[in-house]
Design a protein that fits this description.
The chain has 19 helices and 14 strands. About 2% of the residues have low confidence. Helix 17 crosses helix 18. It folds into four domains: 127 residues, Rossmann fold, CATH 3.40.50; 165 residues, P-loop containing nucleotide triphosphate hydrolases (Rossmann fold); 56 residues, no CATH class; 56 residues, Arc Repressor Mutant, subunit A (Orthogonal Bundle). By secondary structure, it is of the alpha/beta class. The strands form four sheets. The protein has a five-stranded parallel beta sheet, with helices on both faces. A five-stranded parallel beta sheet has the order 7-10-13-6-14. The protein has a two-stranded antiparallel ribbon with strand order 8-9. Pfam families: AAA_lid_14, HTH_8, Response_reg, Sigma54_activat.
């Protein structure tokens, strides 16, 4: 993967050296290559720059490089360098998808201007692609998963793969991390979305009632059972059953659940008639089920049966860049509900929120956003001791969060311009790029 603004390909070493110095003086980060194959190996679909390639090269020529780039991503701008008067090559290049061509000898200022325009077009294409992806998620009815962090993008990619299947899923996440929201999200994006999504908290139902809740009962099955009642499994037929806090399920019921999962049949209490069910099971836990199974507190066979695919939900403190977006989202919902106007967060307030450990995760953030709508900025002051931020761990961890916040604010203030961000923070280009790579920051996300 490369973060260069320009990939320059030419088989002549002297030309590569001159062009590299020229681009650097113009504030363009460049990587030079002696042949097309080595440049193509460095290229990825998320490359946000421009390819400048000589046509006449031994082995793979410029048109061959162009064809390979177009097969990877046809929105990557490729500019072909041609000889003077070589119109047929230029026409062929344009027909095959080249952004433009430029004849040798070329005007220095025209080339730089052409490269800048091509780079802007590429960055716009990537931004549009990203925004379309976000709109594809946000614009759909049902629950939403918001976040631009690398952790959330990996989670969304995994969900996109799993949702169309019928595989049972085990969600693991801390309290308030959004396990129910993720389960609903998966259901709404699955072929089962037209059927019921049924949720039950295994830790909230009394032990003597949970069996009836899950499997249902016939009239007269026990005292007070005056009429037949279908259980959660039957109600979820064709859809999804979400078992929250599955670690709280009584041991005796774990045996019956395992049998249902294996046979896909249930028997109502008071009946001997098995009923076939077509249900996707999404179980969720905040505990380490593997450790509980090792100590005998949770059946090992049930753990392995539930754990067809395990999805880890990252805690909020591990994705601080998502906090302002989530806060704004929850504040807008609360403002509409209460008929209030919201006061936009100041940069220092947003930075402060990103430093908190959030033991209650998204649920805690949502509650704070609602208090903020009702009380204004005083809600933030009452939440923690201002000036004494709680840290997420060691000094190094706290400093890393603060450094990331400064980098994000500077990139945002400078519309993603590396040159301007370097000047504001007083960093060398390589140092800035190293820090951005360390924190998973992409300058294209901060372009207006």
């Amino acid at each position: 993967m490369t973060d260069a603004d320009v990939l320059f390909i030419d088989d002549e070493a002297d030309i590569r050296q001159v062009m590299q110095q020229t681009f650097l003086l113009e504030g363009l980060k460049v990587e030079v290559f002696a042949d097309g194959d080595s440049a193509l190996r460095a290229l990825t679909p998320d490359f946000c720059g421009v390819i400048l390639c000589d046509y006449h090269m031994p082995g793979r020529d410029g048109l061959s490089v162009l064809a390979e780039v177009m097969s990877l991503d046809n929105s990557i701008p490729v500019i072909i360098l041609t000889g003077h008067g070589d119109i047929s090559t230029a026409v062929t290049a344009m027909q095959q998808g080249a952004y433009d061509f430029i004849e040798k000898p070329f005007n220095h200022e025209e080339l730089i201007e052409l490269l800048r325009k091509a780079r802007e077009k590429r960055q716009l294409a990537l931004e549009n692609r990203y925004l379309k992806g976000q709109l594809n998620q946000i614009g759909r009815p049902g629950p939403r998963l918001l976040g631009t962090s690398a952790q959330m993008q990996r989670l969304l990619a995994m969900v996109d793969t799993l949702a169309p299947t019928s595989a049972d899923i085990l969600l693991h996440g801390e309290t308030g991390a959004g396990k129910d929201a993720l389960a609903r999200f998966i259901h709404e994006r699955s072929p089962r979305s037209g059927a019921h999504y049924v949720a039950i908290n295994c830790g909230a139902v009394p032990e003597h009632l949970i069996e009836s809740e899950l499997f249902g009962h016939e009239a007269g099955a026990f005292t007070g059972a005056e009429r037949r009642r279908i259980g959660k499994f039957e109600h979820a037929h064709g859809g999804t059953l979400f078992l929250d806090e599955v670690e709280s399920m009584p041991s005796a019921l774990q045996v019956k659940l395992l049998r249902v999962l294996e046979e896909r049949k249930v028997e109502r209490l008071g009946s001997n008639q098995p009923i076939a069910i077509d249900v996707r099971i999404i179980a969720a836990t905040k505990a380490d089920l593997r450790a509980l199974s090792d100590t005998g507190e949770f059946r090992a066979d049930l753990y392995y049966r539930l754990n067809v695919v395990e999805v880890q939900i990252p805690p909020l403190r591990q994705r601080p860049e998502d906090i302002p977006l989530l806060f704004q989202h929850f504040a807008l919902i609360a403002a509409e509900h209460h008929g209030r106007e919201i006061i936009p967060l100041q940069p220092e307030q947003a930075a402060y929120l990103k430093q908190q450990p959030w033991p209650g995760n998204v649920r805690e953030l949502r509650n704070l956003a609602e208090r903020y709508v009702l009380m204004g900025p005083a809600a933030l002051e009452n939440s923690w001791d201002i000036g004494q931020p709680r840290t997420a761990g060691t000094l190094a961890e706290t400093m890393a969060i603060f450094e990331r916040s400064l980098l994000q604010d500077a990139l945002r203030a400078n519309n993603g311009s590396i040159k301007d961000t370097m000047e504001q923070l007083g960093l060398a280009r390589k140092t800035l790029y190293d820090k951005m790579k360390k924190h998973g920051l992409d300058k294209s996300f901060y372009k207006d």
